[in-house]
TrEMBL record:
Full protein name: Transcription elongation factor GreA
GO biological process per UniProt: DNA-templated transcription elongation; regulation of DNA-templated transcription elongation
Family of the protein in this entry: Belongs to the GreA/GreB family.
Higher taxonomy: Bacteria, Pseudomonadati, Pseudomonadota, Alphaproteobacteria, Hyphomicrobiales
Domain of life assignment: Bacteria
Pfam families the UniProt entry points to: GreA_GreB, GreA_GreB_N
Role summary: Necessary for efficient RNA polymerase transcription elongation past template-encoded arresting sites. The arresting sites in DNA have the property of trapping a certain fraction of elongating RNA polymerases that pass through, resulting in locked ternary complexes. Cleavage of the nascent transcript by cleavage factors such as GreA or GreB allows the resumption of elongation from the new 3'terminus. GreA releases sequences of 2 to 3 nucleotides.
Keywords: DNA-binding, Elongation factor, Protein biosynthesis, Transcription, Transcription regulation
PROSITE patterns in the cross-refs: GREAB_1, GREAB_2
Coiled-coil stretches: none
Transmembrane segments: none
Organism: Segnochrobactrum spirostomi
Length: 158
């Protein structure tokens, strides 16, 4: 069973979603199914079939969340330090073509959100950055083509 690296914030977010799905969504869906059942013939009851579909999707996500949480390896980013890029690092990059500065934090797959500057540990940019230090140049082969960046900063924690 492969461990899934994630930050404490990512773990908490999954716990919150799981709690919501089991304590709020599950009872709401069960109520919708019982109300739809009361309408009679289930073979042509669209409300019943929609509620059963919702239940299936919700239970599938609950199982997925429970799996991720059970395999989670929570890494306390605040206890990490150094100049080498590793999981949890917030990396400041300078695009060597456009001189544009970008800041990314390397996080677990389930926490990734590029719009908020969090990239997955398995993304091309994170794989290119891991093990590098400040001052290193990296070439990232991404779907949009190859890009060159210089690492100008590495920090851990908030």
């Amino acid at each position: 069973m492969e461990k899934i690296p994630m930050t404490a914030a990512g773990y908490t977010a999954l716990e919150v979603e799981l709690k919501h799905r089991t304590q709020v969504e599950r009872p709401r869906i069960i109520q919708a199914i019982s109300e739809a059942r009361a309408h009679g013939d289930l073979s042509e009851n669209a409300e019943y079939h929609a509620a059963k579909e919702q239940q299936s999707l919700n239970e599938g996500r609950v199982a997925e969340l429970e799996d991720k949480l059970s395999r989670a390896e929570v890494i306390d980013v605040s206890k990490l330090s150094g100049n080498t890029v590793k999981f949890g690092a917030t990396v400041t990059l300078l695009d060597e073509d456009t001189e544009e500065q970008k800041v990314y934090q390397i996080v677990g797959d389930s926490e990734a959100d590029v719009k908020q500057g969090r990239v997955s540990i398995s993304s091309p940019i994170a794989r290119a950055l891991i093990g590098k230090t400040i001052g290193d140049s990296v070439e990232v082969v991404a779907p949009g083509g190859a890009r060159s960046f210089e690492i100008t900063g590495v920090r851990f924690g908030a």
